[in-house]
């Protein structure tokens, strides 16, 4: 089975009969959104978090790290953490830099009293000034709303230059906060056209000023311009004058990211 890490987390959670909230609670996390982010692939878990989830789900860490079920104890000799990390890097570590690989292997070789290795999986490997950002199969509606995926499929990685993006006026702190999604519909024309790929900043999870956001409202996923209307409402604005603007409750609007750039280099 060719599964991503996010798909394995969700499959094993469901097989255990646990909700996202129950898994988060079993791991000692305050919010189920952490599990949700791991399952949609907007964040990569550290090995410490993988260990916590494996313990809560009653599986070996290798069953989450590797794209195959964990071996039965009698089927093969127990593999060391170094072997597991090497196998994980061989299968899924193409985007890791040499420095990240070295740190992971060094951490795996050190004695681990709690059998947990702390590591940061969130930074894609650098290629000169260029970095890889994930293009996810997320279609956010610029019309009547799209049903949000339980987990998005990773279509491919896109190579970009952070310095060039900043020269274009794109503002972000870290390149690994950037993802690519697809706009769907005509309500944001001419700013964003139907099927335009969009660079978004997933580190922006709340309203930070007038702009175009990727957000969930009424259980549907939208890309629209948001402005504060009053203390209780946002104004959801379409750039296409043929589509009506509307007021939506702020406490029922869940911002997922801020839209920064249309892939045709049109800054928003």
Automatic annotation (TrEMBL):
Organism (species): Pseudomonas bharatica CSV86
Report if keyword Transcription regulation is assigned.
yes
Query: What name does the UniProt record give this protein?
Result: LexA family transcriptional regulator
Q: In the record, what lineage is assigned to the organism producing the protein? A: Bacteria, Pseudomonadati, Pseudomonadota, Gammaproteobacteria, Pseudomonadales
Q: Which SUPFAM superfamilies match?
A: lambda repressor-like DNA-binding domains (SSF47413), LexA/Signal peptidase (SSF51306)
Q: Does the keyword Transcription apply?
A: yes
Query: For this protein, what is any one GO molecular function term?
Result: DNA binding
InterPro entries per the record?
A: Cro/C1-type_HTH, Lambda_DNA-bd_dom_sf, LexA-like, LexA/Signal_pep-like_sf, Peptidase_S24_S26A/B/C
What's the domain of life for this entry? Bacteria
Keywords of this entry: DNA-binding, Transcription, Transcription regulation
For this protein, the record's Pfam families field holds: HTH_3, Peptidase_S24
PROSITE patterns recorded: HTH_CROC1
Signal peptide limits: none
Q: Which PANTHER family match?
A: FELS-1 PROPHAGE TRANSCRIPTIONAL REGULATOR (PTHR40661:SF3), PTHR40661
């Amino acid at each position: 089975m060719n599964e991503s890490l996010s798909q394995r987390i969700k499959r094993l959670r469901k097989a255990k009969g646990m909700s996202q909230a129950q898994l988060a609670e079993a791991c000692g996390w305050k919010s189920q959104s952490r599990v949700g982010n791991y399952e949609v692939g907007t964040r990569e878990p550290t090995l410490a978090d993988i260990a916590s989830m494996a313990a809560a789900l009653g599986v070996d860490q290798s069953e989450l790290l590797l794209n195959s079920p964990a071996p039965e104890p009698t089927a093969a000799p127990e593999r060391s953490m170094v072997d597991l990390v090497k196998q994980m890097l061989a299968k899924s570590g193409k985007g890791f830099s040499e420095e990240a690989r070295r740190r992971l292997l060094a951490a795996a070789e050190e004695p681990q009293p709690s059998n947990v290795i702390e590591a940061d999986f969130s930074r894609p490997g650098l290629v000169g000034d260029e970095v890889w950002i994930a293009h996810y199969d997320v279609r956010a509606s610029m019309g009547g709303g799209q049903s949000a995926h339980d987990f998005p499929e990773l279509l491919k990685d896109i190579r970009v230059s952070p310095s060039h993006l900043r020269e274009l006026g794109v503002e972000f702190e870290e390149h690994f906060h950037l993802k690519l999604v697809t706009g769907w519909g005509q309500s944001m024309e001419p700013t964003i056209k139907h099927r335009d790929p969009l660079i978004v900043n997933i580190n922006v999870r709340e309203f930070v000023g007038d702009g175009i956001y990727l957000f969930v409202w009424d259980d549907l996923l939208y890309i629209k311009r948001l402005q504060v209307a009053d203390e209780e409402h946002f104004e959801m604005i379409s750039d296409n004058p043929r589509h009506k603007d509307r007021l939506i409750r702020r406490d029922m609007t869940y911002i997922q990211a801020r839209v920064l750039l249309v892939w045709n280099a049109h800054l928003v």
